[in-house]
Amino acid sequence: MPGLLCGNSLRYVRANLPVLVFHCTDDELAKARITTQAELPGLEKISIQGSAVHLIHRKNGAEHRWIFRKPEYFSTIDTLVYQAGVWSGSVEAMEDLALGRIRLAPGVPLDACHAIRLAAEAALLDFQIEEELLGAAKQAIASREEEPTDEFLGRVFRDVVSGAKPSTGFVALRDMGALSLMVPELAEGQNLSQNQYHEFDIFFHSIFACDALKEQNLALRLAALLHDVGKSKTRRVGSDGQATFHNHEVVGARQTDRLLRRLGFESDLIARVRFLVRHHMFHYTPDWTDHAVRRFMRKVNVDQMRDLIAVRIADRKGSGKRAGVPRPVYDFLAHMERIRAEDAQLKVTDLTLGGNELMEMGIPAGRGMGDVLKRLLEEVKSGALVNEKEALSARVREYGGVH
């Protein structure tokens, strides 16, 4: 492939993101624009963004992005190149790589936006910002003449959450005075203690929970970060000195929606994260009947339950006192799996809603009724719908034309 693999790639490699960046001459950029599948198996798309060429291809079923552009530097790390199996560059850049340190590349100005961007670099690389540079960044933010746009803050926030260690970026934002600019909802949790089950305040618990979600899944990482965002608003301290947070998941779901919309996230992603924040406080005991589990499954299906368990694990790891998940949580998932497997074997005659009920709802006997029953059966078998009369009736009304 054209160009040299450059140090810009390191932020993605260390964060386990499938992106590589190549520095190119004009001739090499022209060659990248006409790349073929013979040269890059799995090539799906070539897009031009400014002067950069983005190649999107698939390898082992996963999407990868290669970016070809003229040399562009932000930190000294970006000036490195990868040749003959090793990274090489200036003494300063090699020293920063060895020490895990971030310094600006020569000639890069330090305005407020560049200062905030340092937090993304710190999180993606899990490197520390040079102390002198951190102080200068704080000054640049304090003396800013314009407010950064929500679009810019959203891009930095996404990078921080996607980083090799998100907490490194969030702590950097706090130290440079930019945390309340980007996510005031998280900033509110600073120095607010929780209870005997948590070692850290709300802010540190949240960012450590995000760290604990190692998988590169943006929705799950956001849910881990924001699952307790409603605690600051609902915190009450009792006579025993212990804090309570009643309905924090309800308040937090609303805050999550507003926060992610403000920062420009996609509607589908927002809905998924909001759902996980709203339902992360689920509680199951072994005496739950099939009926009780089915009732829960009207709100949470098996796949969503797997997501909730991932968030629960991150939550406990971020507490500083607990790591694993109690056995009943996995028993709950197994109970839901059994019900889904049983429902997958159902026939139309096994539905808890039949022809008589449909006629009472205004659906006449005939082919139309049969189509409704088949549609209900498909949803029950797929796990999208629970086989209970109330749930089936509600879904029929959603189909339209029934009152």
Provide the descriptors you would attach to this structure in a database record.
403 residues; alpha+beta; Hypothetical protein af1432; 3 domains; five-stranded mixed sheet; two-stranded antiparallel ribbon; 20 helices; 11 strands; 51% helix; 11% strand
What do you see in this structure?
With 403 residues, the chain is of the alpha+beta class. The protein folds into three domains: 72 residues, no CATH class; 159 residues, Orthogonal Bundle (Hypothetical protein af1432), CATH 1.10.3210; 53 residues. The chain contains 20 helices and eleven strands. The radius of gyration is 26 Å and the shape is globular. 35% of the residues are buried. The mean pLDDT is 91.
CATH architecture of the largest domain: Orthogonal Bundle
How many E-type strands? 11
Q: Name the beta content range.
A: 5-15%
Uncertain ranges: none
* Strand arrangement in the largest pleated sheet: 1-2-5-4-3
User: How many domains comprise the coordinates?
Assistant: 3
Structural class by SSE content:
alpha+beta
Q: pLDDT average, as an integer? A: 91
**How large, in whole angstroms, is the Cα Rg?**
26 Å
CATH domain class of the largest domain: Mainly Alpha
- The DSSP helix count reads 20
Q: Per CATH, what is the topology of the largest domain?
A: Hypothetical protein af1432
Sketch the major β-sheet: 5 strands, mixed
- Identify the overall geometry: globular
Q: Roughly how many Å apart are the termini?
A: 62 Å
The helix fraction, in percent, is 40-55%
